[in-house]
Amino acid sequence: MKHIRNFCIIAHIDHGKSTLADRLLEYTETITQRESQAQLLDNMDLERERGITIKSHAIQMNYKVGEIEYNFNLIDTPGHVDFSYEVSRSIAACEGALLIVDASQGIQAQTISNLYLALEHDLEIIPILNKMDLPGAMPEEVKDQIIDLIGCKREEIIPASGKTGLGIPDIIQAIVDRVPAPVGDPDAPLQALIFDSVFNPFRGIIAYYKVVNGQIKKGDKVKFINTGKQYLADEVGILKLDMSPRSVVKTGDVGYIISGIKEAREVKVGDTITTVDRPSLESIQGFEEVKPMVFAGIYPVDTDEFEELREAMHKLQLNDASIVFEPESSAALGFGFRCGFLGMLHMEIIQERLEREFDMTVITTVPNVSYIAHTTKGDEVIVNNPSDLPDPSKLDSVEEPYIKANIITKAEFVGPVMSLCIQKRGIIVNQSYLTSDRVELVFEMPMGEIVFDFYDKLKTISKGYASFDYHQVGYRKSDLVRLDMLLNDEPVDALSSLIHRSNAYDFGKKICEKLRELIPRQQFEIKIQASIGAKVIARETLSALRKDVTAKCYGGDISRKRKLLEKQKQGKKRMRQVGNVEIPQTAFMAVLKLD
Fold first, then answer.
1. Long-range contacts from 302-310, C-beta under 8 angstroms, 24+ separation
2. How far is CA 53 from each of CA 48, 256, 471, rounded to the nearest angstrom?
3. Is residue 109 predicted with pLDDT exceeding 80?
4. pLDDT at 444
5. Of 317, 422, 458, 528, which residue is least crowded by CB atoms under 10 Å?
6. Closest CA to 468 of 483, 479, 482, 453
7. What residue ranges define each of the domains in the chain, with the CATH number in brackets?
8. CA distance 195 to 199
9. Which residues pair with 482 in a beta bridge?
10. Gap between the Cα atoms of 347 and 369, Å rounded
C-alpha cells in the first residue's frame, strides 16, 4: 500500500488539466505512441470539440523511481461549476491534488472553489504553474497569487507546460515525495467509495470506486449502502487505458466493478460499496443526492416521436445519472418531458447529445428553477413549472432559491459587474482585493435570475475576464408573479414564466414586441397579450393581411363599397373564432435572448 499514490487534477476551466494528464501518461509510458492523441481522457466527441471535460476520468499509471515501482491513480476532473459535486467525490477518493494555475490568467473563481473542496478533505496540494511557454505568461505575479492563496513556499510551486512537457519529471517526483500513501485497514470490512459510473451497452453500468478499507474479490456478493441494493461482483479490476481485470482489488486502490446493473438510478456517485457477508455498518461521509438547479421542458418537434424521445432520455440517463425527468404535456407543444439539469451548460450538453447521439430534434422551453409556494391553507407546494403555481386567490407567499455567487474580475470591470448583479436583484456581501488588479466580489442573488443569460452577459461586460462560481444558500420569500402570454385570449403555457413583480411589466412588454416580430401574419387580426392573473399588462396587435375587396367597385355609390367592407369584416370575425395561431420554433428560443 505504501507505494500507491492517489491524486486528482483540479483547476479552472481551460487551464490545461487534460493536456497535462496526457503528458503524465506519456512520461510514465502508460500509453504507447500509437494510442496517444490530444486530450486522450476526454472520450466524448462533444468534449473534444468544445475542449471541456464533462465527466471525470480515472486511469492508473505504473512508474519506477529508483528500484521501487509506484502505482499512480490519476483522476482528471471537470472544471465547470455545473459539475462541482462530481469533482468533490473525485477529491474524496484521493490523498493529493495537483492544483493547476494558468501562468497567463492567474487564479480564477473555480480554482478557489475546487481548492477549498480539496482542503476540506485534507488533501496535500501541489501547486503547478502551467502554460509557461506562452508569451503572455506572468510567472512571478501568479506565483505571488498562489502563495497568498495557499501559503506555500515559493520553491514548492512547479513551473510546467502541458504543451511542451516542461516540468513533468518534477511533478512526478513531487507526487512521490509529497502525496501521502492511502491509509486504510486491509483486514476491516469492505468500504469502497463510488466516484463515477459509466454505461456499457453489453455489460450494464460499470461503477468506479476507491477501496478505503478491506478488499473486494471477484464473485463477492456486494451491497450498495445508500440504495440498499445487492449484486454479485462478476468482474473487478483496475483502470488502465482500458479496464484490466484482477481477482482482487486491495485497500487504497482505485478500480471498477461490473455486476450487471441495468438502472443508472441504482448507482449513485458518492455511495459506499460493502460485502453482504461482512458488511460495514457506516457509509463514507459526504454522500448527497445531486440536486438539479435548472428546469426546462424538452419536447419533440414532431409529436409522433414522443416514445423515441423517452427511449433516448433513458439511455442518456445511463451515461449521466445527474439528469432527472418526468413526462408532462403542454397545450402548445404536445407531449414532452420536464427535465432537471445541474446548470445551463449541462442543459446545453444534454440537448446537443440528444441531437447527435439519437438524431432527435427537440424544442426546449424557457428554463426556470424550482420554487416553494405556500397556500392560504398552510400547505407547501413545490413548483417546478410555472403552470403548477396555485391560483393567486389561494396563494399566501412564494419562496425562491438564493445563491452565493463569487465573481473574480479585473479591477477595471468592477463597476459594470456590480451594476449587472444589482440589476439581477443581487445584494453585495463582500468585496476584497486579491491583488492590486484582481477583485473578488461576493453577491447573494436569486437563482432564477442567473439561469437566463447571466453568464453570457458577465463574460461580455468583462471581456471574458470575470470568472463565476456559485452555491445554493437556501430559500427566501419573494414577490413573484406568474406572467402568462395570451394569443387571441388563448394562453400559451410553454411561454409562461415566474418572475419578480418589479420586472414583470418590462419583461411582458419585451416578449409581446418580440412575438409580434416572429409570428407570421394571418388573414385575421392577432392580439398578443401579457397578463398577470386577469390583469393584462402589455399588448401588441398583429394586423390582418388585407385583401382589397373594393377593387371591383370603380365609381358608383359609397354604400356599395361599405357593403363589401362589412361583409369582409364579418368573415374576419368568423375566421378569428375558428382560426388558430401557429407559433414558430424561433419564438420559444427568442424569449431566452430578449436583450
1. 302/361, 303/334, 303/335, 305/360, 306/334, 306/335, 306/336, 308/358, 308/360, 309/336, 309/337, 309/354, 309/360, 309/362, 310/337
2. 8, 21, 20
3. no
4. 92
5. 422
6. 453
7. 4-178 (3.40.50.300), 191-275 (2.40.30.10), 294-365 (3.30.70.870), 372-478 (3.30.70.240), 482-593 (3.30.70.2570)
8. 14
9. 498
10. 13
**Whole-angstrom distance, CA of residue 342 vs CA of residue 295:** 9
Q: Across the strands, what pairs with 430?
A: 442
Q: What share of the chain is helix, strand, coil (3-state, %, to 5)?
A: 30, 35, 35
149 closest CA partner among 383, 440, 417, 418: 440
Q: How far apart are CA 73 and CA 56, in angstroms?
A: 13
Given a cut of 80, is residue 48 above it in pLDDT? no
Q: What is the pLDDT of residues 134-173, one digit of tens each?
A: 888 888 888 888 888 888 888 888 998 888 888 888 998 8
d(CA 456, CA 200): 35
Cell of 83: 459539475
Sheet containing strand 204-213, strands side by side: 230-232, 221-224, 272-275, 191-200, 204-213, 254-261, 235-239, 243-246
Host H or E run for residue 65: strand 57-65
Left (φ > 0), alpha (ψ -120 to 50) or beta: where does 130 sit?
beta
Q: How many CA atoms lie within 13 A of 164 on its CB side?
A: 10
Q: Are 445 and 421 in contact (CB under 8 A)?
A: yes
User: CB-based contacts of 540: which residues, under 8 Å, 6+ apart?
Assistant: 512, 513, 515, 516, 527, 528
Q: Do the bridges between strand 294-300 and strand 324-330 make them parallel or antiparallel, or are there none, so unpaired? A: unpaired
Contact 193, 210 (CB under 8 A): yes
Those residues with Cβ within 8 angstroms of residue 49's Cβ, 6 or more apart along the chain or in another chain = none
Distance CA 143, CA 102 (A): 11
Closest to 440 measured CA to CA, from 116, 85, 23, 207: 116
Residues in Cβ contact with 573 at an 8 Å cutoff, skipping those fewer than 6 apart: none
pLDDT-based confidence at residue 68 (cuts at 50, 70, 90): confident
356 CA to centre of own chain? 18
Question: What span, in angstroms and rounded, lies between the C-alpha atoms of 127 and 385?
Answer: 44
Q: Shortest CA distance to 146 belongs to which of 39, 15, 22, 56?
A: 15
Q: DSSP letter for 423, please.
A: H
Cell reading at 179: 502525496
Mean pLDDT confidence for 339-346: 82
Task: Return d(Cα 253, Cα 6) in angstroms, integer.
Answer: 8
Could you report the per-residue pLDDT of 238-252, keeping only the tens digit for each?
Answer: 888 778 899 998 888
Could you count the other beta carbons within 10 Å of the beta carbon of residue 339? 26
Reply yes or no on whether the pLDDT at 595 is more than 70.
Answer: no
Residue 456 is placed in which grid cell?
453570457
- Grid coordinates given for 330: 403542454
3-state secondary structure of 488: coil
Q: What is the pLDDT of residue 589?
A: 63
Are 142 and 103 in contact by the 8 Å Cβ rule? The answer is: yes
